[in-house]
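Tokens as discussed.
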């Protein structure tokens, strides 16, 4: 009878994240993750069909945490709400900087970037729409926050550039 390992999926995600941070994307393998978790490599493939899916899974989990935190933040003060979105995006970027700046990772995921970028912008727009006058404005603000935050711009600078209708 095969041994049961508690929370194996979470262990795999945690170990992959650790290895990518320490070794880089290219030097992290399904085999190395399996070895450090004390399981057979085939078991990893029972949970994740590829290294790319493993990486995408922990990034997605962290993104959903980010979105849920934004969703729960009070919206009465627009500036504070947009500032919280900026801060959340900045934290997300810093958490995954080792992947976002890794050449082999960006090469691997570059073909999916335009679609994923559009999805992120739309998710943020849906969160911003309740404080804006229309969906277009929410999309404009979400694109500005997404791009400029990832580029390292300060929130006060971004906020000054936003249209008056969102302030």
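Sequence:
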């Amino acid at each position: 009878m095969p041994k049961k390992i508690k929370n194996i999926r979470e262990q795999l995600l945690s170990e992959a994240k650790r290895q990518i941070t320490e070794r880089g994307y290219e030097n992290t393998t399904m085999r190395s993750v399996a070895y450090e978790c004390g399981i057979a490599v085939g078991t990893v493939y029972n949970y994740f069909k590829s290294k790319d899916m493993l990486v995408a899974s922990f990034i997605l989990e962290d993104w959903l945490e980010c979105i849920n935190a934004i969703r729960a933040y009070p919206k009465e003060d627009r500036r504070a709400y947009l500032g919280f979105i900026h801060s959340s995006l900045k934290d997300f970027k810093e958490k995954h900087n080792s992947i976002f700046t890794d050449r082999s990772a960006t090469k691997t995921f570059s073909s999916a970037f335009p679609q994923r970028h559009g999805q992120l912008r739309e998710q943020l727009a849906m969160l911003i729409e309740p404080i804006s006058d229309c969906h277009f404005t929410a999309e404009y603000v979400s694109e500005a926050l997404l791009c400029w935050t990832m580029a390292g711009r300060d929130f006060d600078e971004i906020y000054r550039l936003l249209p008056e209708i969102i302030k």
